[in-house]
Amino acid sequence: MESFTEDHSKALLAKEWLVKVDSQSSTPYLFKFAYSSVDLTTCILVTDTKTAWAEVLTSNQFARRWRICNNLSISPLPDTDDEESWRDRHLTLLGSAHSLGGFPGLALELEKPTFGDLALELECNNWKWRWEPTFLGPKVSAEIISKHLIMPLISVNHLAFSSSDVLGDLVPGDLEKATDKVGRTARRTVDIHIKNALSRPRVATTLRRMTAMFNFLPELPAIIIDTGNPDLRAPSADEISSPKIPARYLEHKPHIHPPWPKQSLIQDYDMEPLPKPTPHNMPQQEDSATESESEGAVPKQRTLLASPTPSHQLRASGQSPSASLSKDASPALSGRSRSRTEAPASESDSSLVRPNKKPKHPKGSDNDDSEEERKRRAAAIKSGAVAKRGTRQPLKRGGKRF
């Protein structure tokens, strides 16, 4: 069995469609048949408007199948000329049966396929024939159906709606002229032809109504002649009304608190970092020799961060920030703060208290004073008359620096 080619498709373009209905499945089958009297080959195209099948038979294959279908001897005739004449007569008979006049006299039955994808058995009065076409595939099937069925139907439909005469009343000559005119125009510009054939309101709405009727839609669309020109301009921003908020939402609108300021709350207070003590302004205490010089700075900063007092409250009360800080200091710090003098009132409220510098003692008398002080303390310890102080603080080496 030979394959179906483009040449076979072109040979079938000039053939008419033949229709047979399978009584068991109520499926209509459309046939196109062609044969060649030169090489005695034949081909058939079958479709159910959804799928396409085709079969091509050579001269030997045709003769063998005819003999099998009619229970004849498979072996050919001894004489070659007689065999070729026999094949030509039976092929012409098969071609006559596949015509508009002879095809209605054939009975169609679907059988189980042996070689192909579909088995169609045709039976006449005294002979039988069997087609077993194969599936052409989805792509080739679509091309075949479009070229052989859909496009011609669109052109004939255009001819029927565009002609001023009723096609059924035209004589064959006039109908051929009208068909040729539409066909020549269509093949020059196929795209414009399809547009003109299906864009007319009368044709488009008639096709729409037929589609709805054919598929059992309950509401059938009307056929119209004039569609009018709708306004296709997009609405502008001024024409689009913003959605109104109901009054009940406006009455019960929740109160939204303003956001906190971005700056930290600590910046609202007049706080400045304590100055780093230097050897010149570092206060010297005579009664705490075991404490380091940076011990007083760290607790002041912790106390300041723990309980800040706004500067405007201090101004209202007439107190300076240094006085407020001295009240919150620990007992250990209060002893040390007594030896320091308060800053003058002329200084800024936001500045911290700075201790006054003690007058420097002469270098020569430092050693004498320290020696006398040591002897006096030693004598006091022996006599038990040492003044009681608070708990001695441990000696800290190298305090934290901020």
As a percent range, the share of helical residues equals: 25-40%
**What number is the mean pLDDT?**
76
Number of β-strand runs: 8
Distance between the termini: 101 Å
Helical segment count = 13
Uncertain residue ranges: 264-270, 279-351
SSE topology string:
HEEEEHHEEEEHHHHHHHHHH
- Please state the CA-atom Rg, rounded to the nearest Å: 58 Å
What's the overall geometry? Answer: elongated
What is the strand arrangement across the widest sheet? 1-2-3-4-8
Report the oligomer.
Answer: single chain
Major sheet attributes: 5 strands, antiparallel
Structural class: alpha+beta
Q: What topology emerges from the helices and strands here?
A:
Elements: H1 6-11, E1 18-22, E2 27-36, E3 41-47, E4 52-57, H2 59-69, H3 80-97, E5 107-111, E6 119-123, E7 128-131, E8 134-135, H4 138-162, H5 172-188, H6 190-198, H7 201-214, H8 247-251, H9 297-306, H10 311-317, H11 321-327, H12 331-338, H13 363-383
Antiparallel strand pairs: 1-2, 2-3, 3-4, 4-8, 5-6, 6-7
Helix pairs in contact: 4-5, 4-6, 5-6
Can you walk me through this structure?
With 402 residues, this protein is an alpha+beta fold. Helix content is 39%, strand content 11%. The protein has 13 helices and 8 strands. It has a 5-stranded antiparallel sheet with strand order 1-2-3-4-8. A 3-stranded antiparallel sheet has the order 5-6-7. Strand 6 (119-123) and strand 7 form a beta hairpin. Helix 4 (138-162) crosses helix 5, helix 4 (138-162) packs across helix 6 (190-198) and helix 5 packs across helix 6 (190-198). It is elongated.
